[in-house]
Amino acid sequence: MHKPQVNKKKVVGRLLSYVGKGYLTQFGIVLVCILVSAIASVAGSIFLGALIDDFIVPLVAMEEPDYTALSNALLMMVCLYVVGILCAFLYNWLMVGISQGVQKKIRDDLFGHMQTLPIRYFDTHAHGDIMSVYTNDVDTLRQMLSQSIPQVINSAMMVTVTFISMLILNIPLTIVVVVCIFFMLCVIGVLAGRSGSYFRKQQMKLGDLNGYVEEMINGQKVVKVFCHEQEAQHGFDKVNDALFESAYQANKYANILMPILMNIGNIQYVIVAIVGGSLALSGVDASITLGTIATFLQLSKSFSNPISQISQQLNSIIMALAGAQRIFDLMDEPSEEDHGTVTLVNAVYNKNEELEETTEHTTLWAWKVPQKDGSFQFVKLAGDVRFDHVDFGYVEGKTILHDITLFAKPGQKLAFVGATGAGKTTITNLINRFYDIADGKIRYDGININDIKKSDLRSSLGIVLQETNLFTGTVRENIRYGNLSATDEEVEAAAILANADDFIRRLPQGYDTMLTGNGANLSQGQRQLIAIARAAVADPPVMILDEATSSIDTRTEAIVQRGMDSLMYGRTVFVIAHRLSTVRNSNAIMVLDHGHIMERGDHEDLIGQHGLYYQLYTGAFELE
Fold first, then answer.
1. Cys-Cys link to 526, which of 47, 127, 507, 522 (CB 3.0-4.6 A)?
2. Which has the higher per-residue pLDDT, 425 or 548?
3. What is this structure's pTM?
C-alpha cells in the first residue's frame, strides 16, 4: 500500500538535494535569468505610461514634432526586450539539462537501491506498479522540473516586481487589484485543493493499472487456454474505471480553474479602468494621468496572469510530488540486511599443508573466517550443508517449516519430494538466504550461514529454477551470466555438459543468436537447457535444482539427465523432484508434508516402508 498523504516538505527537500548535487551553479544562473526576464517584461508595461505621457501627448501638441527622444527610448526598450528574450531562452535551455540530469540521477539511484532489496519485496509488490515508478512517476517529476518549476518561479518574480511597480505608481489602484487577487486566491484554494487529492490518487491508480496489465501480458496464454478473456476484461475495466474516476475528478477541477481565473482577471481589468478613470476625472488624485491608467491596466494583467499560471501549474506540481513520494518510498524501502563477515576467497595450500589466501585464480576456494584476535581462519569450501531444528514462516507468527533437521555431505545428492506447498522450494530458498530462518541453525562447512556475506554465500551456490529467466542478449551472454569471467570455450563446454550445444549451433547465428522477450523464440525445453548451462559455467560446489527438468519432455529428459549427472558429479546437490523417477539415485530422499519431514532414506528404503513416498511413487507411475 502506498501512503495516501504526501510529506511535501520532505519530498521537496530531497528534490532540492538532487538539484544541489552538480546543478547548483546552473540553477543560480536560472534564477538570475528569470529575474531579468521578469524585469524586462514589467519594464515594458511601465514604458507604456511614459510613452503616452512623456512622448505621445507632447508630440501631438507640437507643430514640428522631434522624434529623436522617442526613437532613443524605443531603441532602449528593444535592447531591454532582447535581453529578456535571451535570458528566457537561456533559463529554459538550462532547465532542460537540469531536469534530465536529475531524472537520470534518480533513475540511477532507484535501480541501484532496487538491487539491494530483499526477494520478499518483489514477492509482495506488483512488478507493473514498480515499473510505473520508473516510467510515469519519474516522467511527471521531469515535467515539473523542466516546465512547472521555472514557470512558477518566473510567475512569482513577475508578481513581486509588478506589485512593487504598482505601489510606486499608485497606492489606491494597487489596493483595488489586491482585493480582486484575494478573491482569485480563494477560488484557487478551493479548486486546487480538491483536484490535488485526486491527482495523488491518479498516480496510485495508474500504478495499479500498470501492474494489472503487466500481469495479464505475462499470463496471456493462460487467459486464452481457460477462455478467461471476459473475466480479464472485467478485471481491467474495474481497475481502469478507478483510474478514470480519479483522473476525471482531478482534471475536472483543474480545467475549470483557468477559465474562472481568466474571467476574474477580466473583471479586475474593468474595475481598475473604472476606478482609475473616476479618480482622474474627479481630480481627487492628481498623479493619475492617461499614461498612469494605461500602465496600471497593463500591470494589473501582468499581476493576475502569473497567479493564474501558478494555479495552473499547481496540479502538475501536486501530481509530480505524489510521484516523487512513490519514488522516495521505493528508495526508502529497507535494503537486504547482511551482517556476515565470512567471505569466499581463492586459496592454496602452503608448505605446511595449511590453507592461505591467494590473489591468483585457482580452483580451490576457502571461507575466510575472522577470529576475535584479528587473525583469520581458512575453511575449505567443500559443500557440507546441515539444517539443525529449523523453523520458518514467510509471515511472522505463521510457521510453514517445522523442526527441519537434515544434512548433505560433500558430493551427496539430497532430494525433496512431496505435494505442492509441502515446503520443498522454501527449504532451498533458506540455503541461499533469500529468506532468513525464524529458529534453528543452518551450517555450511560448519559455519553458520548468517555469518557468511550473502554475496559470497550465493556465489558458492548454483541454482536452476523451474521458471527460467533469460535476458535480452545473445545465447552466449545468457550462459555467461553464471560466470562473467568465463571464456567462450568455457561457455561452450558448459553448453555441451548440459546437452544444449547441439540445438544452439542449429540456431540462425549459433551462440551469437540474439534472444529477446525472455527467449520467446526458443521452446521451453531449450530455455531450460540454457539455464542449466548457465549453472554449469558457474561451476559451484553446491547445486540447487528446483524441478529443473520439469519443462523438458521425457525423451529430452533422458539426454539432459546424462548431462545433469556430469554436472552434479562431485558436488553437493539439492533436488526438488517433479518426476520421482529422477531422484532414484539420490543418497537421501526427504518426503515433506505441510512443512514436516515425514520420511527420509534412499529410494529402496522408502519403497520398502510402504509409506507416503511409496504412495507418491506408485501413483506417479499410474499417472504416467
1. 522
2. 425
3. 0.72
